[in-house]
């Protein structure tokens, strides 16, 4: 028989997640500031609580899925907050995306009361939430993470333990940093193609055949810099030159090229690090030196 | 029997390309300012010319593969330049990567003398040049491009006709804009992971399972904005919020985040265009509006 | 005879500010989490309180001068926070630099208890704090701001009422946005001069004779865009071209040029807005359109 | 009696400059591709030449004032270019703004023929050209620059010898880099003020009272980093924090903040260099290290 789960925050993502916990056989008590959101869940078998503290009361596991850190703080430590109802040994899983330093601060307060804390923000889309196929990035102590699996497995098909408390948030933010910036870059490239009079569909098709569309993480990086080989397949100096040409073309076309303008500067940094004649993936090595203070 | 080809510029890329033309049965006459580069080709059966004009003399097809636009200009129009030796009907293929506006300027001068001009810069690496498996992006009139195929097919396995003269250069620069900036972004994401105390290999593995590593061109774009569906799978506003968190984390970690900082501004632009509640791929639609002056 | 003032946060800035209030004849009760900081003030005649609530008790005016919004929140609303001790009509002045939206949130909670709230962050340096010559940017209702003057005048020689609660913070952040980014830009220009083999002192001297060193706010802006005159003294198109040259030079020199690379894109935006042939100050008009949605 | 001067390029800037040389008593022969531009000058006493070579023939001094490097190249070395008419000892002054590396290339070719070469691009506006009050930044050998003064003094009131050939161009581009980027930054700050609901005129007035409006070159830099004093008046860490707040505010307001977003990263770089607790002008020292490879 399932455990008793409190689910706080049942919007676009939290709603289907709570439903999947019900389907998995757990007893689920839900709370949301927006009372319209809980109605459907009540029909599906969830118990509805009047506030966060009531939801959390006597639960084996308390889950929050809220938009921002201040909502989490308020749901935990505000008036009638869940923290007042959590006991020694209660498992608390925050699945919201918040700042890792906030996550660590909340965890610190809860642990003082004996609560076991896990952060488990999710990746992918609302459709994946419905299908129980989210990507879940988890931070916490090994024992707590193991306990959490019973509640995470109905929600996602990929559960990655990334390190101690906060590590789930960190992984989520690194992943989203990449995908969100990449979207802006992709937009620039396709707009530039069209501004140049090219067929943007043909441009997309060409790029899908190169690292432009396929990315570096599964191609050039494992083949070169990640195995310590910086003999040039394509030189930093040539990439710097080609980006200069692309920016000059964009300037003539009045095509927006914000990210490329900045990336050009990153190659300048790699050249200043004496890496002009190395493989272009040496940009990673150069940037790493500036951040970590040593060489790879 | 093969045609008579003049190949000017036989360095890291041009050398193996000239060799592949020899293998395909063409008579190849080579020239390079660096005389050491031509020696090996002479052994392989190439004829060596004393200057660009001599190389181009009586050739059916003249190919240049040079580092910069000023080298191409000099090889064509400088002292003993190839232009003086090209006749009405000679096919000239520039495979260098140069500014499209320079390409168009050179073509204009050559066409006045009846020369047929095609630009055909290449993608991929020096190993692909050796293997005859380059990506070749071609600009020029259809008839000229058809004539050029006999000389391009020994060099590459993907030949894309992108439009009129200069279009090959434009496609090349758009492709390289994307791949070169993406390299800098990839470096930032992996350095951020490590600065956050995450295992960078685990981070890479997680991202290879999401659009962070797989890119948007073959995933979110065809699923959403390119088919005109901007109902949110992941909202612009949420992407804006998550990037804000990622930048705040990077600030706490002192991790470099230049491209993300700029991308955050691009999402601000999309929000100012009233697209905050649309799918994040609406960033493309917003950027396109600023450049093309209309809506998609 | 002076009023009773509670001063919370007596570090590098707050310490000399509290001292100036003592000199002006006020009775000052101080509190700081770092007890070493209060010792000197006690000698100078301040009363030392054990916590924020004790400091605020029966004060006519409570002032906070703390590093971050979370410190202000904690000093006000945490355990033994000042909010518990403030009465109907107490004047609260926050002189910390915090996010305007946080400022507005705190003000909202305090006003519910009848407290009069003013934000008054300061500009200039710690030496100015000692000399009582700070720049003070004030937000709040006119009556409250008038009451606050008795406490602000001993601290600064320029007191600017910027608007309702939060407006002081907004002015401060706009001012610091400008001065902080300008510092990074100044560094780039002087490093570029030296990278180019110029004497950086001569470069500084030349620039002090132009808007490069004197700024636009008191020169080109009032002469052109702010009075609606966009006939070109120096055209957007030429500025775009010159920045392109400067960036190409920086690229050849490997001089860092991050801000200029981005500024070049801003001129591209102005050109896309049809402002290429207008005065370069039209960049302001173009940027304003993207943000405010109308023309100036 | 005046010398014989050839002036090539008599547009918005060159026209009034040629007129000032006539006024100073020189015999001036002018050429411009746009024949409408020379008509007025002919009335004022200039002789009109049919091409650049004819203009340069038998001149003591040849001056070019053209929009781009390719125009200069063409006026010198194209068909009927001025280079063919310059003799041993002719003084050539290029007052156009072009890439220093192009300037050096042209000078190299002309010196082979005994021509004395000086670059002398100008600053300030077209009104200053009319008034003979330009800022002239000069590069060249001391003897050549001394000869050039007779022709530059009628044109400007500030003549700065910046170093060998090309140094004038370098100084011009550094100056314009700063002033052009500063314009974009100024626009952002004023738009941000208005987006925040502040009176932009009041914001401008406040900033004119701080380094935001006055600049760092004549204030904080000579007071701190340039005399080797990095004890903090305002700490790098605090500037980093304040910029973070300003960017967060801009994000909430949807105000464009491209340059500030990038400048925030520059402060991150200074922090990674261990300069967080130093004066904010240490950003210059940190950036200089990345470019020059040593400490100041």
Write the layout of secondary structure elements.
The structure is a homotetramer of 296-residue chains.
Chain A: E1 4-8, H1 14-23, E2 27-31, H2 36-43, E3 47-48, H3 52-56, E4 61-64, H4 69-77, E5 91-94, H5 100-111, E6 116-119, E7 122-123, H6 126-131, E8 134-139, H7 142-152, E9 156-163, H8 167-195, H9 200-208, H10 211-214, H11 220-223, H12 236-253, H13 258-272, H14 282-292
Parallel strand pairs in A: 1-2, 1-4, 2-3, 4-5, 5-6, 8-9
Antiparallel strand pairs in A: 7-8
Helix pairs in contact in A: 12-13, 13-14
CATH H level, superfamily name of the largest domain in chain A: NAD(P)-binding Rossmann-like Domain
Could you list the spans of chain A in which at least 5 consecutive residues all have pLDDT below 50? none
First CA to last CA of chain A: what distance? 51 Å
The structural domain count of chain A equals: 2
SSE succession of chain A: EHEHEHEHEHEEHEHEHHHHHHH
Oligomer: homotetramer
Q: Label the CATH architecture of the largest domain in chain A.
A: 3-Layer(aba) Sandwich
> Please, how many helices of chain A?
14
Query: Biggest interface in this structure?
Result: A-B, 101 and 101 residues
CATH class of the largest domain in chain A: Alpha Beta
Q: Please name the CATH topology of the largest domain in chain A.
A: Rossmann fold
Radius of gyration based on Cα positions of chain A: 24 Å
Classify the secondary structure makeup of chain A into a structural class: alpha/beta
- Name the strands of the widest sheet of chain A in spatial order: 3-2-1-4-5-6
Average of per-residue pLDDT values of chain A: 95
How much β-strand is present in the residues of chain A? 5-15%
Outline the biggest β-sheet of chain A.
6 strands, parallel
InterPro entries (chains A, B, C, D): 6-PGluconate_DH-like_C_sf (IPR008927), 6PGD_dom2 (IPR013328), 6PGDH_NADP-bd (IPR006115), HIBADH-like_NADP-bd (IPR029154), HIBADH-related (IPR015815), NAD(P)-bd_dom_sf (IPR036291)
Keywords (chains A, B, C, D): NAD, Oxidoreductase
Active site (chains A, B, C, D): 172
Domain 6-phosphogluconate dehydrogenase NADP-binding (chains A, B, C, D): 5-163
